[in-house]
Structure formats: structure tokens, C-alpha cells
Write a structure and sequence with these properties.
- A hairpin with a 2-residue loop joins strand 2 and strand 3.
- It is globular and about 55 Å long.
- It is built from 5 helices and 8 strands, in the order βαββββαββαααβ.
- The relative contact order is 0.22.
- The protein is an alpha+beta fold.
- The mean pLDDT is 91.
């Protein structure tokens, strides 16, 4: 991993774990930074967060640029931003953000694919049972589904104005 830099304005760090969790639970998508052979790639994904295991789950195709980058280098960095709006006449923007560092992998076991998709649906949907009934009705669907897991190494938060 790269050396860690400290916030220049330490008073802007969000250190309260409950506050970081609120930002994560409130968000619906994160922006994921990937790098392979010195080439950067960034993509925005919806997610589900499993607090008990400290992992994020995503659904994704098993082939394509994102998959190639992850297979080439599983180390990732992601951010979730709570945008509180631009402040007119102050040239300032109010926000809170979470930065996540970790390793990302494709989930292989059918059991964990179901579990990860359940975490994702519970985070995103008001009625996850409807999606389960209509789109995830049998094991074959899950076998063909790409589920990614981001194993968290570090979560940091920051607020700004």
C-alpha cells in the first residue's frame, strides 16, 4: 500500500465510527478507483455494506474493464460523498465524505453470492422481496451473477465547508 498522508486540517477528520457508519448507510453509490499496470480507472457503483463483516458488496458483470482491472490489482480506493450543497457567495461547498481502502474480489460461492446480494438489496431497496421474487428466483441466476466483495482495510472520514 501507499504511504498514508494526514489531513492538513485535522479538525476536519470524522473520527466517530457511528458518524462514518451513518454516512455509509445514507449513501447509495460510491466511486471506486482502480489501477492496473500504471493505468487508472474509475467507476461508480451502487453498494451494500455489511457492518458485521466490514465488507461492501456490489453486483457486476464478470467480464469487462472493471473485472480486468480487479483481477490485475485487487487493491482499491473508494469514496462515498454526502453532498450538502454549494454555498453561494462563499466559494465553498459543504460535504462529508468517507474514503475506503481495501481489496476487492469476485465472490465465487453460491451461498456468499446470495448473502452479498441480500446485503445489497437491503441497503438499496424499500421492498427487496419484490426483486428477489422477480429477478432472483433460482440458483441459476446467482451462478451467472457477478458479485464483488470489498474487504475493508481502512475507513476514514472528512467534512468540509
Amino acid at each position: 500500500m501507499m504511504p498514508r498522508y494526514h489531513l492538513q486540517k485535522k479538525e476536519r477528520a470524522i473520527r466517530d465510527q457511528a458518524e462514518l457508519l451513518r454516512i455509509i448507510k445514507k449513501g447509495k453509490y460510491l466511486t471506486l478507483a482502480l489501477c492496473r499496470n500504471g493505468e487508472p480507472y474509475i467507476v461508480t457503483l451502487s453498494y451494500g455494506y455489511d457492518e458485521s463483516k466490514n465488507v461492501f458488496y456490489f453486483h457486476s458483470r464478470r467480464r469487462g474493464m472493471k473485472a480486468d482491472f480487479i483481477l490485475g490489482n485487487p487493491q482499491v480506493c473508494a469514496t462515498i460523498i454526502e453532498d450538502r450543497g454549494y454555498i453561494m457567495n462563499e466559494c465553498a461547498h459543504e460535504f462529508r465524505s468517507v474514503i475506503i481502502r481495501g481489496n476487492m474480489f469476485f465472490v465465487e460461492s453460491l451461498e456468499e453470492k446470495k448473502y452479498g446480494m441480500d446485503i445489497l438489496l437491503k441497503h438499496l431497496e424499500d421492498n427487496p422481496d419484490k426483486i428477489r421474487r422477480e429477478s432472483l428466483s433460482n440458483d441459476m441466476v446467482y451462478r451467472n451473477l457477478g458479485i464483488l466483495r470489498l474487504d475493508v482495510i481502512e475507513i476514514q472520514g472528512k467534512w468540509g465547508r
